[in-house]
Amino acid sequence: MEFAELIKTPRADNVALHRPFYPAVEGTLCLTGHHLIFSSRRQDNAEELWLLHSNIDSIEKRFVGSLGTIIIKCKDLRIIQLDIPGMEECLNIASSIEALSTLDSVTLMYPFFYRPMFEIVEDGWRSFLPDQEFELLSSVTDEWRLSCINKEFSVCPSYPPVVIVPKSIDDEALRKVAMFRHGSRFPVLSYYHKKNGMVMMRSSQPLTGTNGRRCKEDEKLINATLRPGKRGYIIDTRSLNIAQQARAKGGGFEQEAHYPQWRRIHKCIERFNILQESLIKLVEACNDQSHNMDRWLSKLEASNWLTHIKEILTAACLAAQCIDREGASVLVHGTEGTDSTLQVTSLAQIILDPRCRTIRGFESLVVREWLQAGHPFQQRCAQSAYSNSKQKWEAPVFLLFLDCVWQILRQFPCSFEFNEQFLIMLFEHAYASQFGTFLGNNENERFKLKLPQKTMSLWSWVNRSEELSKFQNPLFEANSLVIWPSVAPQSLQLWEGVFLRWNRPSKFLDEAQEEMISIIRYNKELQAKVNALRRQLAEMETDERMQENL
Amino acid sequence: VENVRLLDRLSSRKAALGTLYLTATHVIFVENGSEARKETWVLHSQISSIEKQATTATGCPLLIRCKNFQVIQLVIPQERDCHDVYISLIRLARPVKYEELYCFSFNPKLDKEEREQGWKLVDLTEEYNRMGVPNNYWQISDVNRDYGVCDSYPTEVYVPKSATAHIIVGSSKFRSRRRFPALSYYCKDNNASICRSSQPLSGFSARCLEDEQMLQAIRKANPGSDFLYVVDTRPKLNAMANRAAGKGYENEDNYSNIKFQFIGIENIHVMRNSLQKMLEVCELKSPSMSDFLWGLENSGWLKHIKAIMDAGIFIAKAVAEEGVSVLVHCSDGWDRTAQVCSVASLLLDPYYRTMKGFMVLIEKDWVSFGHKFNHRYGNLDGDPKEISPVIDQFIECVWQLMEQFPCAFEFNERFLIHIQHHIYSCQFGNFLCNSQKERRELKIQERTYSLWAHLWKNRADYLNPLYRPDHSQTQGTLRPQMAPCNFLYKFWSGMYNRFEKGLHPRQSVTDYLMAVKEETQQLEEELEVLRERLTNLQKSQLNDNKVKSKRQDRSKELGLSTSNNSLANTPQEYSNDLKSFPSRSPSQGDEEDSALILTQDNLKSSDPDLSANSDQESGVEDLSCRSPSGGGCLPSEDSGKDSDEAVFLAV
After folding, report:
1. Residue B30 DSSP SS3
2. Which contacts (CB < 8 Å, 24+ apart) does range B381-389 have?
3. Domain ends where: B512, B542, B564?
């Protein structure tokens, strides 16, 4: 398909761009296969806006006489308005944008066309390989092995080719366990807590069904993670009620009788459409222009977004607590094990493992616990808060995770190597990107799409020093402790950086950030100067002493 | 009373056993056993309510709510003891005479001169001079010399030059409690001013020539503008209801060239109830997000805060942008008027955003103009209907502004919290009584100490590290976003949940930056010293230098020993300095927290001295993290806390 076919009017002049907090700008609008480009014609202060079509969530058009207005709502929650003279031009442009922003084939997406303008220092596709992760693990324990059972994605389509499992369980047993778990997602290692050797495993629900089916190998597998005489915890991310209902559809949960060494805890985290609805309501509340204070709080409350945040964080804290405080191993699962399960396992690691609070470590966490673990990004992030087409697979699962990370970051502002911008950047790229990282729903699809060969990895771009400097937290001081966030309502806040990003003036807050950076930079400079002078002095003094001695 | 248990509100598991003491001024709870005697001191004047709950098997629970939002839950084993404590506290918490208040017995060991010095720190005459009055338009009037005209006003009042004593007295007779229009803030740049008064006694049709002349005089004192705003900060309905009682508001037809404006701020009773409702939300045991947000909304608190801010913003805009003078009043002109005038001043004048300026502002708009501290904050036993968090709301407005303009204020959140604390504590004499007249009669300045001097002495603790006098946010008028700004007003957990440390961010950016700045200052000094030594050394070396070129080679050969030398005398010195920074450790907010952490971490070991050790450790570790060569790991401790665990486990 040629993109040109979709673009009937590639260019319009005298277009006015309206954004909140900026004066309207007049300029030229151009459409390309992947971008909407607006450039102001003013010579003195030329301004360009590049918007990926894939970032566009919905568009609305209005006409007043022959002046058409297009309102573009983006997946990053920004809303812009374009006034385009000429009804035909406006209609053409609107329909082109609509078509180009809803291409149904992945291979037509921008990452397949994007050619990087920067020098690639490190190929991000090879930055975080399971083997490296396993190497780290084997340096502290030999109870685990790397299994290639899923090499051809033959056992579990949503798992990566290699997974880490207990050494005592052979591939034959794994195959049997896979049959017993929803979507074949058998329990695999998610995290090993060096401090006490306890582990966190994740899987999908067991297929016990109504007649209480059991699987000896499954029991053996998860028991293999327990120390002799110790008990473990199974954290089910569904309410008991929902878990029981799941039995009717062939799913279910681990029965006490068959898993006597495990205590099951149900922590309800909501699913797809409820989360999606919550996001839509929240964004609506944030965009509400009325002056009524009461409406704001009740709308915020009605969106339930912060309730979801609290639920997810609480479950993650519970998992972390079981591991670190109770000294017990933990198995986390919900239904499919691709959404709430990953929220819990990844957040628990941020609480427990200081490595996950570094930039590199966090990237590795996203790769391991989200991309390789088979969170269906393409389904979940196809549309965002403004979309009209309600597909039932869309859900802000990853955004909720990032929001939870932000909440912890806010409570421990000195314990993270990255800043809020880093999290916002990941949010943006998960929804629309020039990079292939978040395309596809699992490793299997990525492999088939040949993403590593045909597209650029987000990490290749981020992990260059020019970019990294934007994402570094100036307050960071390595903190090797476990950090326990508070989940009280008073401690949780709306993530303004994302949800009010386009509706609040940020000048004064940005200035504060700059001030902070300059205070710390000045301190570091002085430190360097003092150290240099000290050294110089010491050298000279010895020198002198030497000369005196001579 | 012995064997009393102090309960932790967030976790029933964490109760401390100790002894309860009642003294003349404080309730003191001392924890048993622990090496570092953990004590909780509560001033009687802070107690807002005491509640005796039904006796249970474990004892008799006593709930003490404080005006600084601390809630203390005690369980006393014997019912009889509990009753005695209850009765004593009820009496002690409600003194009937000023002389019973703590400030009359509080002695910070300062001599007479220092005390006098302290009271001189804030000087309002100086402040009006700073604003630029008296001048061609404004003068000091001695009409209220002996509080003869208005007993709740100060003796020195600034009025328009053209307002004669006759006009002032005439106008005062036409105003509630004779609070005639007087100057609150004067803007040098454009002559616009903010004046304040009480409501006119206009009823349905009454007029007063002198009052009309008074307003005209105020307008004329601003030659750049041909009209004057009269802002009534009450809801219109309330103002109209007042007319039936012979009070009311200005009729635009009777006054030449005024523009009249209502700004609906609710009265003290509504505000009291609103706070009460919000505090109930704060006290919920483990509220869900919905409970909390719904309760917060239902309390209406933030809506009221926004109303006050909006009024302040309106006035600041009139003065700064339109160059129009404003007369502000409510009913008596000592609550809402004080809030609004001070918010407007704060927005207009960067001086009030400095530490000293803020003290001056409170002294000017609140203390001197007869805000009824004693009644509003219940220092002496009185009518509970008079109590209302009026200045608390102003303090919160400042905090909300600090959130929006992080670089604009010289002081930090702690400064505000401490001022709030001392408004209720009665430890200092500043906020005693209801008026200047009463304070003079009591000879407050001779018998008590000034809070401002106390805060000023400790000002290093109250600095905002992001403040820079030459920063753009510290210049000129602050212009907060007007619309849509609902979400700009946030719940202030630092104040209303201030004693629930677990709810707050576990690491403080402010403290961190303050420590960095302090270190920076030391580095600057050291740099100076080093440079000096270097120059001296260079001079002396130049004098008897023979082999210049060989120096570098040599020092390289001796690299090891030299670096040892230089290291030997410096880093230690640093760690000592650093140890004195109370808040340096990365995961430990303050001493209390770190104590908490330690009790957690050393569950296994019973070494009581660990707390001391670990404090040092974290200090030292910190240094290694900061120093360029650092990279040492912190001992693996957790900053965990019980309360949350309880929450997570509640399945």
Report:
1. strand
2. B381/B94, B381/B95, B381/B96, B385/B269, B386/B268, B387/B272, B388/B268, B388/B269, B388/B271, B388/B272, B388/B335, B389/B271, B389/B272, B389/B275
3. B512
Tokens representing residue A265 in the block? 């805890």
B502 contacts on A by Cβ (under 8 Å): 486, 488
Number of inter-chain CB pairs under 8 A, A vs B: 265
pLDDT tens digit sequence for A398-436: 999 999 999 999 999 999 999 999 999 999 999 999 999
Task: Determine the distance from the C-alpha atom of residue B418 to the mean position of all C-alpha atoms in its chain, rounded to a whole number.
Answer: 5
Distance from CA of B499 to the nearest CA of A (A): 13
**B172 belongs to a structural domain:** yes
B411 and B357 in one domain?
yes
Nearest CA in chain B to A306: B289
Report how far residue A203's alpha carbon sits from residue A251's, in angstroms, rounded to the nearest whole number.
13
Say whether both B207 and B348 belong to one domain: yes
Residue B455 sits in the same domain as residue B330? yes
Does B334 count as an annotated binding residue? yes
The three-class DSSP label of residue B61 is: strand
B285 within domain boundaries? yes
Residue of A nearest to B409 (CA): A512
Burial of B256 (0-12, 13-18, 19+ CB in 10 A): middle
Q: Is B267 annotated as a binding residue?
A: yes
pLDDT in tens, A149-207: 999 999 999 999 999 999 999 999 999 999 999 999 999 999 999 999 999 999 999 99
Mutate to test the interface with B, among A350, A502, A543 (most CBs of B within 10 A): A543
Q: For A266, which residue in chain B has the nearest alpha carbon?
A: B651
Q: Where are the domains of chain A?
A: 3-103, 130-432+468-504, 509-549
Q: Cβ–Cβ of A475/B633 closer than 8 Å?
A: no
Q: What is the pTM for the complete model shown?
A: 0.89
Closest partner residue to A291 (CB to CB) among B293, B483, B502 is B483
Indicate whether B534 belongs to any domain: no
Please indicate, yes or no, if residue B323 is contained in any of the structural domains.
yes
Among the candidates B512, B528, B562, a domain finishes at B512
Rounded distance between C-alpha atoms, residue B271 and residue A491, angstroms: 25
CA distance B249 to chain A (A): 27
CATH architecture of A3-103: Roll (2.30)
Are B60 and B158 found together in one domain? no
B184 and B70 together in one domain: no
Q: What is the total residue count of chain B?
A: 651
For this structure, is B625 an active site residue? no
Question: In the block, which residue shows the tokens 């150290």?
Answer: A531
Token pair, residue A102, equals 């809803």
Domain containing B8: what range? 4-94
Q: Are residues B176 and B48 in the same domain?
A: no
Q: Which of residues 15-74 of A touch B (CB under 8 A)?
A: none
Residue ranges of E strands in B270-346: 325-329
- Considering only alpha carbons, which residue of chain A is nearest residue B497? A490
- Do B302 and B231 have their domain in common? yes
**Coil, strand or helix at B228:** strand
Residue whose entry in the numeric block shows the structure tokens 């997946």: A75
Count up the domains in chain B and report the number. Answer: 2
Inter-chain touch A314–B647, beta carbons under 8 Å: yes
Q: How much is the pLDDT for B311?
A: 95
Which alpha helices (H) appear in B545-590, and where do they start and end? 550-557, 559-569, 571-579
The residue from B195, B330, B397, B426 that is catalytic is B330
Measured between alpha carbons, how far is B639 from A356 in angstroms, rounded to an integer? 17
B331 is in an annotated binding site: yes
Per-residue model confidence as pLDDT tens digits over B153-207: 999 999 999 999 999 999 999 999 999 999 999 999 999 999 999 999 999 999 9
Domain co-membership, B259 together with B335: yes
Would you say B336 is a known binding-site residue? yes
